[in-house]
Amino acid sequence: MHGVFPVGNSPHDHPGRGHPMSTQKEAPPEETLDPEDWESMRALGHRILDDAMDYLETLRDRPVWQHAPPEIKSHFEGPAPSDPEPPGKVYQEYLDTILPYQVGNSHPRFWGWVAGSGTVMGMLAETLAASTDAVSGAFSYQSNNYVEMQVLDWCKELLGYPRDAGGLLTSGCSASNLIGMAVARNTRAGFDVRGRGLRNAPHQMTIYCSDEAHSSIQKAVELLGFGSDALRRVPVSESMQMDLKSLKAIIGKDREDGLLPLCIVGGAGTTNTGAIDDLNSLADICAKERCWFHVDGAFGAWAAIAPGYRHLVAGMERADSLAFDLHKWMYLQYPIGCLLVRNPDQHRQAFSLTPAYLAHGEGDRGLTGIDVPWLADYGFELSRGFHALKAWMTLKEQGAAKYGRLIRQNIRQAQYLAALVEAAPELELALPVSLNIVNFRYIRPGTPNSRLDHLNKQIECELQEQGVAVPSIVTLRGRKYLHVAVTNHRSRRDDFDLLVQEVIRIGGELA
Ligand SMILES: Cc1ncc(COP(=O)(O)O)c(C=O)c1O
Prior knowledge:
Helices cover about 40% and strands about 10% of the residues. The protein is built from 15 helices and 13 strands. It has helices at about 40-55, 70-75, 85-95, 120-130, 145-160, 175-190, 195, 215-225, 245-255, 280-290, 345-350, 390-400, 400-425, 450-465, 495-510, and strands at about 135, 165-170, 205-210, 230-235, 260-265, 290-295, 320-325, 335-340, 385, 425-430, 435-440, 470-475, 480-485.
């Protein structure tokens, strides 16, 4: 017998107690999805884990990304399988047709958009969570929820947010923004939004964010029924921060027009440039205007734990709701995001709904007795994966101090890259680096900007297609730049040396 688990102690485990019906001749054989041959499945499991470890250990030796050829695309066009295939064959198909054509974000030279890179312990934790098909959100007297509550407490502690706040782990910052803004709407609308709906709103409500805010803010505004016309995109200053004078003027005009300024969304690290709004001033304006203060800190919130950089996000702790990811700058496997809400009652009131089949809190026994709040009362999802386990296991394994050092390392690597760019006459930095994002382009004197836009787009594609590195491309002030977002715990300084060298090589060849 393998393993550490005692067997045979269930009251229903004893032989000879089968139901009499099961002996009837005409009953069809009963089936299950468990393996017929546990031994060979176990061997396959060992092989898969070994291969996954090898893959991670040798990441650096492989291209970051490779283009899937047309035959791979057509490979995935067949009908649903009706007959079984041997598990080893299914796995081989994964190795041949799926694994090589991943996005590549775990590679040390993946810096496109803003991505995560995953941890080995995170992978193991996901396997463990899957092994019990763990479902989190409902139920009491079970450890999943204790783990999630502890991870939420750790996030509050590390980010300097009040310990008695409410919170929820989510599938990412888009979901966190949506849930946070739903709490804002229901709390500040001044009427019963849940019961009466927005069509009965006494005032049209408006929401404010910077021109550089992430698209998930607009999606949330649309999903919550405000309509994107209600979203005021405030211009940014030279440093890409929300311009406070413009914000005040727009709010003033909206009040004059009889609208209800409901919520200001501050950015702690924008996707394009990593700019952090002046969060303390935004908190002051919110207090004065009686607006909800929501902060989108998808990745930038974590600057708070980097030694020497906490001041960058000062004021974030004053937010009524704070949204961020753990699958970006906490390097954990997708998906895991988080929302914290200062007032847990307001958070709960926005979502709690208890039909009879989900009754809970009646006593202190069984899964529906209550010892910790049901997390399903704090969001729109009932069934959720056990996202918390990978955060809990990895944070314990690595310690928060190391996380702080890694985030500082990424900030310093971004500064290092910016210095390399500034030293190269063929390259131009878009703007000073404010956090962990570097935007730059290849230039040639006398070449028009439209040609440079095209050239830099080609350089991006060549870097990706040749497997060298994955930056993305952004448009800033009308010009295209290579975009390098350093949220990768595997990157080293020489990866950035290589990037610069290759951009200059490819740029020279293409030009
Ligand atoms: C600033 C910002 N907010 C929100 C999001 C959305 O996060 P997610 O992709 O986890 O839904 C992103 C994603 O990059 C982001 O950069």
